[in-house]
Amino acid sequence: MPFSLHQGDALMVMATLPDQAVDCVITDPPYNSGGRTTTERTSRTARAKYVSGGVRHHLADFDGENKDQHSYGYWLTLNLTEAYRLSKPGSPALIFTDWRQVSTTADALQAAGWTWQGIATWHKPAARPRKGGLRQDSEYIVWGTKGRIAASQNPVYLPGLYSASQPRKDRQHITQKPLAVMRQLVRICPPGGTVLDFCCGSGSTGVAALQQGLDFIGIEMSPHYAGIARSRLETALNQTTGPDDLGLAGPEEQ
Q: What family, per the record (predicted)?
């Protein structure tokens, strides 16, 4: 089966999977950042945090955005430790984060046993300007490997900067990542390998993996978003992607 999708708590689901079952980890956990006060950081819903007032779409909320920084670091360390067990030697791990949580994410990655290899940038051209200051138009990807980089297994040369806006057409998740970016990132997985996303949301990582000929294991807490992910993954199985169709697309193409 090219993909398996599990609905439930990531830590509990990963505990049921065998050692060294995956070749790559790519995930976009709830960032648990922002807010001027502890109350704002820990009591706001994800929708209140990420969705501007007056927006037209009515995308479903999701849990997991109410941790303070220490709790988030502990939670992420536990999950990345289990993902480390599931990964083969040399496997890469790519973790999305924002500027507030870069240091916490890097600490969690290393505490879980991974070798920190650097940070990549996801630039969002459609980000709103910020009066009186610099525009916050980037998020980040903290990445590492299980041991040394296994370059001989997959000798690709990937960029450290990706530029694409969040999808606007047929958007299905509040924090959905562009397929144009995800299809570039999954290339870090060796050909024919398996990608794990333990916070898979609406399944964009999995769709990108399937489109690039990779297998996928996804875990999603929300029953609502797990259902959307399954539908998107099943659709992706019936679609083919040309080998040269890897450019970063505009919002209408994502």
A: Belongs to the N(4)/N(6)-methyltransferase family.
25: Cβ contacts below 8 Å, ≥ 6 apart: 80, 83, 86, 87, 91, 92, 93, 94, 95, 195, 196, 197, 198
Q: Which residue has the higher pLDDT, 240 or 95?
A: 95
Query: Do the beta carbons of residue 218 and residue 2 sit within 8 Å?
Result: no
- Whole-number Å distance between alpha carbons of 117 and 138: 19
- 51 has pLDDT over 80: no
**Complete domains list, the chain, with CATH:** 3-240 (3.40.50.150)
Place of tokens 């009186």: 132
R_g of the chain computed on alpha carbons: 17
Determine which helix (DSSP H) or strand (DSSP E) holds 141, and give its type and residue range: strand 138-145
Inter-axis angle of helices 204-211 and 223-237, to 10 degrees?
A: 10
